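__Protein archive entry__

___
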Amino acid sequence: EPLHNMDAVLAAVDVLADPAGLMLSRNKIVISTVGLVPEMRAFLDSKKAKLAVSLHATTDEVRDWIVPVNRRYPLAELVSLLEEYYPMTTQHARGDRFVVIEYVLLRGVNDSVDDAARLAGLLSNVYCMVNLIVFNPHDGTEFERTPDGDVAAFRQALTAAGKVCTVRASKGDDTMAACGQLGDVKRSVRPAPKLQPPDWLAHAQRSARSGRTAHVADSMH
């Protein structure tokens, strides 16, 4: 989490932007956070780089599970800050003054058309670009990749609601080197604790997996 190390991150940004460094435009430097609200405010007040927020869910119930910091800073508080700094007004909502909303699609968890509608509602007063991320599966995960058709439907629902929405291209997944695939869970000295999903979601996931398993078995006969 970059904003847990604010001083070092801002110093690095200064080097990247300095003519004696890499001379990058500050509008091309993007710092991503899971949503630490007080640190976000300090970062935004510094005006040193652009901000990306890893949202990944449209309800507190689901986000509490997959992004545990939501228990400290729930969606209402997070979105309220974004509305304050990135309002959808004629004066502010123009050019590249937007926040990037990162949203990884997890099959059966947060990828329904209803989720897309809720996401559009949450961000209705936020000047933003939504970047959809297709999940890259790996050993040890309980999550699955969203089918391409469902990714397209999710994006269509957002664009129909007036939001700019892109889909991040996955690179390196053929060699297990894509985003989220680096590392070996079997070699972890202290594996991250896994939280339990909401009961309704756990039931839905089990039912979906059973249905897919039965379909595969039928197709083999």
Q: What stands out?
A: The longest helix spans residues 199-219. Confidence is low (pLDDT under 50) at residues 174-178. The helical segments are 6-17, 37-46, 60-66, 75-85, 113-122, 148-160, 199-219.
